[in-house]
């Protein structure tokens, strides 16, 4: 099955972070104290995995086919470095709505911060038939 077909299926993976019970700030990755108010009263929080392209990284000499690096601002306000897939570079604009399709799995090289998350443009919803 081609990789893109697999990414078109709905995902049941949950992306977990934390929310501070004191100031309500959401954070990822999980920490022992709140990054805003330094309180220790943190609760598990499921991130939506949706956001917008905040900025597009400069191209590298030979990027992996179909993959671009971008800074994505999540709905929760957090910024993450991520790979964009299923989109041409010319179609990527700041503010493009994106959704996480999962961590990148590349057996040829170890994971890095910029390849830890893969996002694609949000697909239009199909009408129920």
How is this structure best described in words?
The protein is mainly beta and 129 residues long. The chain folds into two domains: 15-47; 48-122, OB fold (Dihydrolipoamide Acetyltransferase, E2P), CATH 2.40.50.140. The protein has one helix spanning 3-8; strands spanning 15-20, 26-27, 42-47, 50-56, 68-74, 79-84, 97-102, 118-121. The strands form two sheets. The chain has a five-stranded mixed β-barrel. A three-stranded antiparallel beta sheet has the order 2-1-3, with no helix packed on it. The radius of gyration is 16 Å and the shape is elongated.
Structure summary:
This protein is mainly beta and 129 residues long.
Number of strands: 8
Largest beta-sheet characterization: 5 strands, mixed, barrel
What's the N-to-C terminus distance? 26 Å
The CATH architecture classification of the largest domain is: Beta Barrel
Query: What is the residue-mean pLDDT, rounded to a whole number?
Result: 79
Give the assembly state of these chains: single chain
Widest sheet, order of strands? 4-5-6-8-7
Overall domain count: 2
Helix content: under 10%
Spell out the helices and strands N to C: HEEEEEEEE
Which runs of at least 5 residues are low in confidence (pLDDT < 50)? Answer: 105-111
């Amino acid at each position: 099955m081609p990789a893109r077909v697999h990414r078109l299926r709905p995902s049941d993976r949950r992306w977990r972070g934390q929310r501070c019970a004191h100031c309500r700030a959401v954070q990822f990755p999980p920490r022992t104290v709140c990054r805003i108010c330094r309180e220790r009263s943190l609760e598990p929080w499921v991130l939506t995995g949706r956001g917008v392209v905040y900025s597009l990284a400069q191209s590298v000499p030979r990027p992996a086919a179909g993959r671009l690096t971008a800074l994505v601002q999540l709905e929760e306000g957090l910024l993450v470095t991520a790979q964009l897939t299923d989109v041409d570079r010319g179609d990527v604009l700041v503010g493009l709505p994106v959704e996480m399709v999962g961590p990148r799995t590349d057996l040829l090289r170890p994971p890095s911060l910029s390849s830890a998350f893969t996002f694609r443009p949000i697909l239009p919803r199909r009408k129920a038939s």
